[in-house]
Design a protein that fits this description.
Distance between the termini: 55 Å
Number of domains: 3
Helix content: 25-40%
CATH class of the largest domain: Alpha Beta
CATH topology of the largest domain: pyruvate-formate lyase- activating enzyme
Radius of gyration: 24 Å
CATH superfamily of the largest domain: tm_1862 like domain
Number of strands: 19
Oligomer: single chain
Number of helices: 17
């Protein structure tokens, strides 16, 4: 077993003059965005970041609760730091995000060396919490009473960061949360518990943050939300001469966000994740059509192709309604590609239900498919009221069959691009071959081709020569 020696804060200060931060991020893109927000705030207060956990003075874990496995991975990582904390008592260990929100102070019971627990709408105070912890450590009375741990949970706060005072660390691909939380009540989902109800960011703040990101080098911005196309649903109806949006009763909508971001000079691409069929509107489809920087790829999870299962999930739509929404979308944006999440083995799912899912996936023609075996989450209706009676072996078998079907569907869909020229945003150089570049088409498809690294960060036409279920290969189009 290898033992890692952790430097003390005194040694770090003497060596570099800066305390060091290390963040471990689990889960979704929202967590990646939140980690970058926290990192930027720490750097704005004089911290340096380090890729080496052994060099860090502050170690933070941004956590996920969507599946039990994600939480157990966090506890495993925390367990490995117990001896490090013994050898470096002034090390600060914090846990933030969804798991912190869900279990709160229970984290201390399983990992007594953790110092700070901050939930999904309190993590923005992490720098202040670290300062407060260090003040307590410096006070003999609190040290003697062992009153050192800090907990900050609750979902009543707005998540606010003063971006102009922060260092941008996101590179050419930036994430921007336009809303947080969810007002739906899917029976399997823990998000409303861990993330709270919908909170939309004011339009002017979105535009300002996007402009700031682009001024700092971002070329692509992915708009984030638990149900990103529900943006604006909870905002008050405009009164008097106040600007009106294109959403319900004149509220601002995600379509309005796209239209406001489209003119930003230097911004190459706008992407979005993740959507819900209930909020798929004609206005949004028209905004995607009219805004040339917006990817023609929309992730709209169906979750199941069985109406009985969808009803048990409380998804709020039927397969027929989903078909109608997709038909409307494809009429307005004929070349749009779709992605879906699927849950197999949901309580009560019969063989016939699963066959309906296979058929529905093929009928709609999803290019991207993420398949998950049902995993009951604590406090959800499905976990408490619906017995998880489907054997694991059946879940695994259905998982593999749906993945195989998804591969067949994607192969057929991407094969249609062979012989065509598509617009590709060039992202990076292949790690395996320095002569090959990687990018994504306007339809969200990975594309590889030979080219100069000077093309990175630009959008160019690529003539597609080959396609598989996982991407396409081509050559730079003549005349580009």
């Amino acid at each position: 077993m290898t033992t890692t020696r952790f430097q003390s804060a005194t040694e770090t200060a003497e060596g570099s003059g800066q305390p060091k931060l290390h963040i471990v991020t689990f889960g979704c893109q929202m967590n990646k965005y939140d980690s970058l927000l926290v990192e930027g705030k720490f750097k704005g207060q004089g911290y340096a970041t380090t890729d080496e956990m052994s060099e860090a003075d502050v170690i933070l874990f941004n956590t996920c609760s969507v599946r039990d496995h994600a939480e157990e991975r966090t506890f495993s990582w925390l367990g490995e730091l117990k001896h490090a904390k013994e050898s470096k008592p002034d090390l600060v260990i914090g846990v933030m995000g969804c798991m912190a929100q869900r279990v709160g102070e229970e984290i201390f019971a399983r990992a007594g060396h953790v110092d700070i627990v901050a939930g999904t709408r309190k993590f923005q105070h992490m720098t202040e919490l670290v300062d407060q912890l260090r003040e307590r450590r410096a006070d003999p009375d609190t040290w003697r009473n062992r009153d050192l741990r800090l907990t900050a949970t609750g979902v009543e706060d707005d998540v606010e960061f003063e971006r102009g005072a922060m260092n941008y660390t996101g590179g050419q691909h930036a994430y921007l949360a336009v809303m947080r939380g969810c007002d739906l009540n899917c029976t399997y989902c823990i998000v409303p518990t861990t993330r709270g109800r919908v909170q939309s960011k004011p339009m002017e703040e979105i535009v300002s943050e996007a402009q700031w990101m682009v001024s700092q080098g971002a070329k692509v911005i992915t708009l984030l939300g638990q149900t990103v196309n529900s943006y604006g649903e909870e905002l008050p109806k405009p009164e008097g001469d106040a600007p009106r949006g294109s959403g319900r009763q004149g509220r601002p909508s995600l379509g309005d966000v796209l239209r406001r971001l489209q003119p930003i000079e230097g911004l190459e691409r706008i992407r979005m994740i993740t959507m819900h069929p209930a909020y798929l509107t004609k206005d949004l489809a028209e905004a995607v059509r009219d805004c040339g920087k917006v990817d023609r790829f929309l992730p709209i999870p169906a979750q199941s192709g069985s109406d009985d299962v969808l009803r048990a999930m409380k998804r709020g739509y039927t397969t027929d309604l989903y078909r109608k929404r997709v038909a409307m979308l494809r009429e307005i944006v004929p070349d749009v590609e779709l992605g879906s999440d699927w849950i197999v083995g949901f309580p009560g799912e019969t063989d016939e239900d699963f066959e309906a899912t296979l058929a529905f996936a093929e009928e709609v023609g999803f290019f991207v498919n993420y398949v998950f075996k049902y995993d009951p989450r604590p406090t959800t209706h499905a976990a408490e009221e619906l017995p998880d009676a489907i054997p694991t072996v059946v879940k695994k078998e259905r998982n593999q069959r749906l993945l195989k079907k998804a591969e067949e569907i994607a192969t057929l869909r991407l094969g249609r691009y062979v012989g065509q020229s598509v617009k590709v945003f060039v992202e990076d150089v292949s790690e395996k071959n320095a002569d090959i570049l990687h990018g994504r088409s306007i339809h969200g498809v990975p594309v590889s081709f030979a080219g100069s690294p000077d093309l990175i960060g630009t959008t160019i036409p690529v003539a597609i020569q080959q396609a598989s279920a996982y991407g396409m290969h081509g050559v730079v189009a003549v005349g580009s």
